[in-house]
Design goal:
Length: 301
């Protein structure tokens, strides 16, 4: 299966797991419902007649809703204009870092070269946060490609050692093509309200990739034990209504164990997933991370 990556390059995305997950999804999906959509790598690789997706993070949803408006050529023109105006490197167009930088800063030359332009762009974006394409470029050139704001609401990621390259272009091309031919609705709500408002019907399938209780990342700060229990109660209710779901979660990570999903999952069907925490090429590399996929249905592709 050809797996495409979301142009948000989202931390913790399911891109590398899609080959395994799609095999475990129902054979035929009418409406694919994703309450924790993040960068969107899952719905982008799932066949359905319709998509209903959601995230609590307004910036994520703003980026999706902005990128989806354009075809690839228009989008590339608009993004190129910003990159040229600020004088950032642009390896996709062959505008790379001068040799002198490459020699002087062997491993960090993109970051060193783009730093001043990136700071200027960040400053301009923070003065007027309406331009979501500015935010997208900050993400693409930013450290680890994270979307991070401080308590005062200012974007505060430092420059990264990356730029707009062929991978970014390919991801945008796949994404914009998918958006033009599919029916997708984005919501920006707490997943509880989102799931409550859906009028469920035959052929609905809910895939959930909630923040992990036992690992660290920006969005996991929003999650706690109570939320974890509440989520499983909600899934039990959906199961009682006959709605199909599948949920991924980490059960073991760096000495921590998520006993809540381990116990709850026994009511359903549990699949082990080879996650990106485990080396596919060298299974002698020791890691205690284990990811599972829990479903309330039998039928898989
Ligand atoms: C593990 S990430 C999803 C990654 C996604 N599967 C991908 O491939 O990019 C979890 C997402 O849940 C969102 N989130 C956290 N708490 C939420 C809540 N209460 N309601 C809805 N979304 C929430 C976060 O903003 C984050 O984008």
């Amino acid at each position: 299966m050809k797996v495409v990556r979301s142009p948000l390059f989202y931390v913790g995305d399911k891109y590398k797991l899609m080959g395994q997950l799609v095999e475990l999804f129902p054979k035929s999906i009418n409406r694919f419902i994703e309450p924790f959509v993040g960068g969107g790598s899952v719905f982008l690789n799932t066949k359905a007649n319709e998509y209903l997706v959601n995230d609590i993070d307004v910036n994520i949803i703003n980026i999706h809703n902005t990128l989806r408006k354009f075809d690839i050529n228009t989008l590339l023109d608009k993004l190129s204009q910003i990159i040229y105006n600020y004088g950032l490197s642009f390896s996709f167009k062959g505008i790379t870092v001068p040799e002198s930088f490459k020699k002087k800063y062997v491993k960090t030359y993109y970051a060193k070269y783009n730093k001043i332009a990136y700071e200027k762009l960040k400053n301009d974006y923070n003065n007027n946060q309406n331009n979501i394409l500015y935010l997208y470029i900050l993400l693409i050139y930013g450290f680890n490609r994270i979307i991070r704001f401080n308590a005062s609401g200012l974007f505060n990621l430092p420059v990264g050692n990356v730029d707009f390259n062929t991978n970014v272009y390919n991801a945008l091309k796949n994404y914009t093509e998918f958006m033009q031919i599919n029916k997708i609705s984005f919501k920006n709500k707490n997943y509880v309200d989102f799931l409550n408002e859906v009028e469920y019907r035959e052929g609905d399938y809910i895939y959930l990739d909630p923040p992990y209780l036992i690992s660290n990342s920006e969005y996991n700060k929003l999650w706690d034990i109570k939320k974890e229990y509440d989520l499983y109660d909600i899934l039990d209710d959906l199961n009682d209504k006959g709605i199909k779901f599948g949920i991924t979660n980490l059960v073991n990570h760096k000495g921590h164990v998520n006993e809540i999903i381990k116990t709850w999952g026994k009511k359903y069907k549990i699949f082990n997933i080879n996650s990106n925490y485990i080396s596919f090429n060298d299974n002698t590399i020791k890691t205690d991370s284990k990811e599972i996929f829990v479903t309330n249905y039998e039928e898989c592709i």
